[in-house]
Amino acid sequence: MKILALEMSTAQGTIAWHEDGAPLFDCRFxxxxxxxxxxxxxxxxxxxxxxxxxxxxxxxxxxSYAGVRIAIATAVGLRSATKAKVTGIxxxxxxxxxxxEYCAIGDARRQSxxxxxxxxxxxxxxxxxxxxxxxxxxxxxxxLPVYASEGLPQFPVAKLAYPSAGRLTEVAGLHxxxxxxxxxxxxxxxxxxxxxKATAGFAPTK
Length: 206
Prior knowledge:
Distance between the termini: 54 Å
Number of strands: 10
Helix content: 25-40%
Low-confidence stretches: none
Radius of gyration: 19 Å
Number of helices: 4
Shape: globular
Mean pLDDT: 89
Strand content: 25-35%
Strand order of the largest sheet: 3-2-1-4-5
Order of helices and strands: EEEHEHEEEEHEEH
């Protein structure tokens, strides 16, 4: 099986290619808005070197909204061109760490944070939103390792760790029968929609 994995949910993007279980390509690069070109350059390099994938695995976050959407859109486009099977997996289930059970936290903006517990590559709890005080109280009771993919000085217990595309392929292999293949990003809250104000002198149309 030729597998292409795409992970863009954090400031460190990764692309991996596995073939018949063997890792043949693993690239890491800056994945902020100023460096998104590196993602497409490496996707192109990977396809030129190895050909068409039979399966594409995408990290779904939570994390960078723009990054996750770029990865999903790329996977959908490649599916149309190659007829590859596409699978989405929570990015926090693929942190590049040795622990098989751990907790992941992250800044969810608006003075809130997310918490999730991962066990053997699957979400065992969360992600849920909590305030600073709520998360502090929770972390004080934990015995599991805690990771974050960004600096969170208010939670010194959290160690820095990023999801990896290579780990996504491993998780997909472990839980192939339990993955539904959905490609929706993991949203931590309902979208905030701003309604435009009426302009003076113009009546709304029906």
